[in-house]
Amino acid sequence: MSSNIKEAVVIINLKDQDALFEYATTLCKFFKNNIKINKVRNAIIEREKLGDTYIGNNQLILHIVENGITNNFIVYSKLKRSIHWQSLSSNKKYDINKIIFLGYSDNKSEYAKPKHLSEIYEYPEILDDLTKKLKIFEIKVLK
């Protein structure tokens, strides 16, 4: 397992919640994790069952906890346009335009609690400041 967490900011177009799952799989592969979309989807769903991951200010935190992840990562994603997210725990619907993806292999890992995460939960607007400090990648279209 990698000893360093990888961080990035990505600006992207997503058309819906299904595209979001595909994008999460792409992120896992980008960070050299060998994991299939159904495992990523299941990992997100299992975490979402524990409680809503919407944190306000049109922001969502998605945890991808899966043994297939050997390179931990955190990606701050800004969407070019909002999409609808239906919570898998409360069935509430939210418009989201910022997503934080956390990828790690073990809930007990130090990566389950990245240093910025507690600040983001307490002050969701801090995401805009964090994204200014990290390298930004722009993806034109994800189908």
Automatic annotation (TrEMBL):
The keyword Transport applies. PROSITE patterns: PTS_EIIA_TYPE_2. It comes from the Bacteria. InterPro entries: PTrfase/Anion_transptr (IPR016152), PTS_EIIA_type-2_dom (IPR002178). The lineage of its organism: Bacteria, Bacillati, Bacillota, Bacilli, Lactobacillales. This is PTS sugar transporter subunit IIA. Keywords: Sugar transport, Transport. It comes from Ligilactobacillus ubinensis. Residues 3-143 form the PTS EIIA type-2 domain. Coiled coil: none annotated.
